[in-house]
Amino acid sequence: MDFFSFKEWFTLENIVDLIDKYRSFGPLPSIALPLLEAFLPFLPLFLFVMATANAFGLGWGFFFSWLGASIGALLVFLLVRRYGDARVFQFLQKNKKVHSLTVWVERRGFGPLFLLLCFPFTPSAIVNIVAGLSKINIYQYMLAVIGGKAVMIFTLSFIGYDVVSLIKQPIRTGIVLLIIFILWYAGKHIEGRMKSKAHTRG
Question: What is the pTM of this model?
Answer without folding.
Answer: 0.73
